[in-house]
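Fig. S4 source data, part A: sequence.
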Amino acid sequence: METIINTLYGLPPAPPRTRTGPMRILCVGLPRSGTESLSLALTRLGYKTFHGWDLVFDDAPYIQAWAKLVQRKYATPGDDPVTREEFDALLGPCDVVIDSAPALFTSEIIQAYPEAKVILNTRRDVDAWHCSAMSAFVDAGSRNWGLWWVHLFEAELFWLWRVYYGFGYPGLFGGRNTQQGLLCNGKRVYREHGFMVRGMVPSERLLEWNVEDGWAPLCEFLGKDVPDEPFPRTNNGAGFVQRVEAKIGPRKKRAFMNMALTAASVGVLGAAIVLGNDKRSVWWPVIQEVPAWIKAKWV
């Protein structure tokens, strides 16, 4: 199966990025815990963040690299943890990482950057978090059959699907799939995630923070002056769905183009097989070239 996947969707390896300064902050709360508001606030304080949206809109080879790391952690037998060098090669010069990457690799990323401060961003109402996660990750994500179908026809969507719905969220929430994992285990995993972080990080390096806390505890923890402006508030449930659609839309268009190309090519292949099932036929070279032609013409 991996051979087929690499043949259809495989991309050249991503050029390693270079870390130019220390990793300063790890925001390890699960997605839908004020991550975008926190990212905007930290950017305002002068940090360079790597948020889940940065993963979603990264260049395709880097998305593929994240997908392979997620598969290695959650679906590959053995003990082969992700290393600091592997994180650096994907994160590059950012000094804050937040949302998807630290949520999916919490223990590994805490161990990789022991000098960094850690923010455990949470929501006080676990039921509200669970409802938001079900809406974002299941209703608008794994249970979106249109998205599932088109991800088969576009390489970036294919690797993104594997990051989140193929291996990431099913592995994080301990389910056969994202829906089953979140529905049965989501609240427990949310609480246990916090227990794990508190057990791994010394109290002097850890801030437990909620978006309702605003600037004051955040700036005190980081040694920054409180900005004279409201704390950023963004990314409610409806806004999340709109952002996903805006960012995934162009990839869907490419997938539909590839789908049409594949359908036309299969028609040509079928006609060639019917007309030339004898290997000595003039149609035999056409039959041999169609699979490679499809891959070469995909956009």
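Fig. S4 source data, part B ends here. The beta strands are 25-27, 49-50, 96-98, 117-122, 206-210.
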